[in-house]
Amino acid sequence: MLAVSPSSVLAEGSQHAAHQHGLATLNIVQNGTIVRAELTAAGADIVGFEHQATSEASKKKVSDALELLQQSANAIVWPIEFNCSTKESKTDLVSQEPDDHEEKDGHTNEDHHDDHGDQHEEEREHSEFVALYEWECRSFDLSGDVQLPVFNAFGTLTALTVNFVGDTVQGQQKVGRNIPRFQLGRLRP
Ligand SMILES: [Zn+2]
Fold it and tell me: How many Å lie between the centroid of ligand 1 and the Cα of residue 85?
């Protein structure tokens, strides 16, 4: 397991376990040459739904998304001067089961919703995509644009909050899909 987790990196008061729709989170920790990141995005922002995938179409959407995220270069690209190489990447779809309700047989309106990614049928069920990455970077510094091609990979993702904790700097920035990049040296404390 990677040592990055939302609870350890960011002291977010508003929501503890629940994710925020429309705003993904990218937590990055740098320790010497090792950089680890955890990307967490609501299923609604990645595949357009959060219920259990039961139809072939929705299962394929999920597996395609996981496959995309598995390649770190589809999510985040460090400046070439950093000389980063990917050491590890893991992806998962994490479901948050509703407390008082179980849908055992998947008898939902899924088939009606498959083509309507913006439907809000997910109030009871939430799921989120989590990707963990680890890189080794030879010359990590604070300049250069860090690219976030994750916005290209997922047209439904609108914004994400970058939280960075490094050896010499820490800070955060909200990044929107209109400008899908950030600079470590310009993060707000
Ligand atoms: Zn949700």
Answer: 32
- pTM listed for this prediction: 0.79
Cβ contact 45:183 at 8 Å: no
Report whether 158 contacts 149 (CB < 8 A). Answer: no
pLDDT at 28: 97
pLDDT higher than threshold 70 for residue 74: yes
Ligand 1 centroid to residue 61 C-alpha, Å: 17
- DSSP conformation class of 53: -
Place of tokens 């922002």: 45
Nearest C-alpha neighbor of 69 from the set 96, 97, 95, 43: 43
DSSP letter (8 states) at residue 145? P
Block residue for tokens 């400008």: 179
CA of 148 to the centre of ligand 1 (A): 22
